[in-house]
Design a protein that fits this description.
Strand 10 and strand 11 form a beta hairpin. The protein is α/β, with parallel strands linked by helices. 18% of the residues lie in helices and 33% in strands. Strands 1, 2, 3, 4, 5, 6, 7, 10 and 11 form a 9-stranded mixed beta sheet that branches. Strands 8-9 form a two-stranded antiparallel ribbon. It is built from 4 helices and 11 strands. The longest helix is centred in the middle third of the chain and has 9 residues.
């Protein structure tokens, strides 16, 4: 397994410290990347069964950010696979949270990248470029805004309010 970032933040401890300053996403995301603990400023994409924007954004410098993708919870197609995840690593992204599916989960688990998703499906998504980037999302009733700080670990996902 790839090395974890030094001094990972545990979400339970962070919640104990900061409590109501934080929102918790209660959807049961799976931890699928090589890094179980990851955090950083949020970038966002809203798309549905089309990963062209995900590929494009993860191909740009991430500077330690976490990409949050609202795929509408669809598990019918994967919004990220091993090649796009490897691009995220090369470009300095801390992690990716996908309200939807990924593919190539064994390969993704071997990469030094935090990945949370609802599950996996080998089926490719469309590549038409439909969707929006850097917009406010609502995931499970929690507002997710570009620039907001996010913390992820096997216990869950916390966002600053």
């Amino acid at each position: 397994m790839p090395d974890q970032p030094s001094n990972p933040v545990n979400t339970a401890d962070l919640y104990d410290e900061r409590g109501e300053e934080l929102d918790s996403i209660s959807l049961q995301f799976q931890s699928l990347g090589g890094h179980t603990h990851f955090s950083g400023p949020v970038r966002t994409i809203r798309c549905f069964e089309d990963n062209a924007l995900v590929k494009a954004m993860l191909g740009t410098p991430g500077n330690g950010a976490v990409l949050v993708v609202d795929g509408g919870g669809s598990l019918r197609t994967a919004l990220m696979g091993d090649l796009i995840a490897a691009s995220a690593v090369e470009n300095g992204w801390a992690g990716v949270v996908i309200n939807g599916a990924i593919r190539d989960r064994v390969a993704v688990a071997g990469l030094p990248l935090g990945v949370k998703a609802l599950g996996s499906n080998p089926r490719k998504s469309a590549k038409a470029g439909a969707g929006e980037a850097d917009v406010e999302l609502d995931i499970d009733g929690v507002a997710v805004r570009p620039g907001q700080l996010i913390w992820c670990d096997p216990d869950g996902i916390l966002l600053e309010r």
